[in-house]
Amino acid sequence: MNEIPYKILLSESEIPRAWYNLRADMKNKPAPLMNPATHRPMTAEELAPVFCEELIAQELDDTTPYIEIPDEILGYYKMYRPSPLMRAYRLEEALQTPAKIYYKFEGNNTSGSHKLNSAIAQAYYAKKQGLKGVTTETGAGQWGTALSMACSYFDLDCKVYMVKVSYEQKPFRREVMRTYGAAVTPSPSEDTAVGRKILAEHPGTTGSLGCAISEAVEVSTSNPGYRYVLGSVLNQVLLHQSIIGLETKAALDKYGIRPDILIGCAGGGSNLGGLISPFMGEKLRGEADYRIIAVEPASCPSFTRGRFAYDFCDTGMICPLAKMYTLGAGFIPAPNHAGGLRFHGMSPTLSQLYHDGLMEARAVPQNAVFEAAEQFARIEGILPAPESSHAIRVAIDEAVRCRETGEAKTIVFGLTGTGYFDMTAFEKFHAGLLDDSIPTDADLQIGFDQLPKVE
Amino acid sequence: MNEIPYKILLSESEIPRAWYNLRADMKNKPAPLMNPATHRPMTAEELAPVFCEELIAQELDDTTPYIEIPDEILGYYKMYRPSPLMRAYRLEEALQTPAKIYYKFEGNNTSGSHKLNSAIAQAYYAKKQGLKGVTTETGAGQWGTALSMACSYFDLDCKVYMVKVSYEQKPFRREVMRTYGAAVTPSPSEDTAVGRKILAEHPGTTGSLGCAISEAVEVSTSNPGYRYVLGSVLNQVLLHQSIIGLETKAALDKYGIRPDILIGCAGGGSNLGGLISPFMGEKLRGEADYRIIAVEPASCPSFTRGRFAYDFCDTGMICPLAKMYTLGAGFIPAPNHAGGLRFHGMSPTLSQLYHDGLMEARAVPQNAVFEAAEQFARIEGILPAPESSHAIRVAIDEAVRCRETGEAKTIVFGLTGTGYFDMTAFEKFHAGLLDDSIPTDADLQIGFDQLPKVE
Description:
2 copies of one chain form a homodimer. Chain A has 18 helices and 15 strands. By secondary structure, the first copy, chain A, is of the alpha/beta class.
């Protein structure tokens, strides 16, 4: 076995040719999306006004284990993939841990994160269907940027509803999207019925992801030739993001490395679901065992303090219901929360796996997250996104535990992206302006009380 | 010959083990740095209060062709190098050109540019000398960020004097440097005699690179255990940056590709000098011929409209004199200039090569630069730095010329970095607020009149 390099790189020809559909190996399938009016599973026909046809097929397919990646998508993947699997030699040394730490780095593309993997796929299928354009929401802006890039590749119109507080605090993200030709509107806006309704009820609102979703969905259904696309939560997104895990596994296999612990941050679950997919598949098939840890912010703790229930994905309550760990569609994290991962729910696939005891979850306070981010930056060089830094926090904690126990465990975590557009959050951290308050049980009860009643 | 991938990647073991010292192959050596008082070449002893010892040796060595890269530096290079040599298949297709376009992409590290290559080397030698810290200036912030990162690796104190206008307009760059532990001060400041003098003479000044250099040098010489480091212009920097060209050549050689045209943006010359070094070496030794084009902003046209003369590198006129193409140390580009590359002078090595007719230079207006940047981003995905976009502009122009003439030339350009911290400039471009005015001959004459009188 050769010495392991700092960066385990695959060649372009080693990019997986098919996505892995984890649901095919799940005995307990994720619950289907449900029509909020009839409380019956959504059919492809019912989804067709909102989503692209081929993406609906992928959303509903829980039996086909591998779905071929079209050549044209592969061609775009080759512009920035395979992404490197990094060996954190220097972090190990700094922590004086016997643990071996690896991270899959998805930030080396202009979107700054793994989101581009699904954006390219979704834009491709939209173009293939002959659509004029797509609509979406964005919070921190990673997904909106990724979709803007993908739409510029496929010459599709791109309308992004950006949570107002981010639109105002992150003018540079907005400008990046515009550089790629996207139309970016602060949400809530006067463009939509749902936006006008929310503005009337909450005149000073700075918006939420759930609200921006409602607006983007409304615009897609009221404009011929448009569909709505989403960067997380959905099964199709986890499918596309399986490329992260497949590459990670291929890179590890190349050097005969078997991970003990896999760690990923989790907001809607796109990165974590993608990273763990082939490993969870082995676990489901009884071929191997891994500890898998989802890390979420203590201020938006869907897994660790949420309910496993059918809920709306959007504040406007116009989307299908999804069965997931949720804090309620009405839940909005405290305004001081800087670390991303603000969605109230969680991927139905990951929710089912968590419910079945196949993975753990851990909630971490934000100052500890930014401390890990800064420590990592100074040692490993890469300035991580606040979201990714949740995974770094727990990876460091686990490595320190190994130092205490003397175990040389192999830890793999997902470094989903870079923090270049998050310097306002780092500035607050440096100034001591981040606080670690978490929602009280009473706060959470408000969201739970609004959960729809489904059998 | 295999099909050429989108990204020609070398392995970590293929990183060159030695820098190439272009000066060793130059018949007409770059003129020595000169003592501004005595008008005699600066000796190592005279330079020692300002620069690190080993870096002085590299600065003065114009005969040793290869200088070994210390293992510790190589170890840090391996965290982000080799950088990819990209084949711009999609740009070629969009331009419908028979030309083959490659770009060496140096932006995939948190400093966002090639500057890290020299920062790591300079910090290493400072640490090896037992210094406590280093001082430097930064304009757009790429160099300051790179040095902050390198100093965090080697546990060195890092004091950055940041041109005031950038400090105010680029708070995020400043915050990145602070994340890496650097002390960042807006220049001119009250910290230094030269800063206080400039503030007294020009109370409202927003600073200049030349002024920030003066402050950083003063602080280095008045604090025991500190030295001054510089990210461009100097011979030592071009030496370190030769890694760019050596990797480029190795990647091209792997596929038997011989470039016809090499293009790089040029401010102080660090990227261009590094990129072209092995190719220029072949040219100097009569082994091959290449067209080499330096691209500079029309608003700061050192090569195309400057004088080849001894001049100060800094506004405070406390640094040694360098013989270079210069607009005069008193020249400051118009405030509307957004594209970086603002230094009044140019690398003495490149200046000599240009003077000897071994390379061309072209000045481009800034709107054309940002148009190229946006076109490139939409097609190739990567959002380029305004600096790098000067090279993109000319690469596209040359590729379009190939379409007209039907010549299938091979064009290689340096994509020095990403524009993630330059969105204010892109916003101005989108809003039509960039103007293409250039200095008049009378404007330039003011700078020329201040040139020091040397034989």
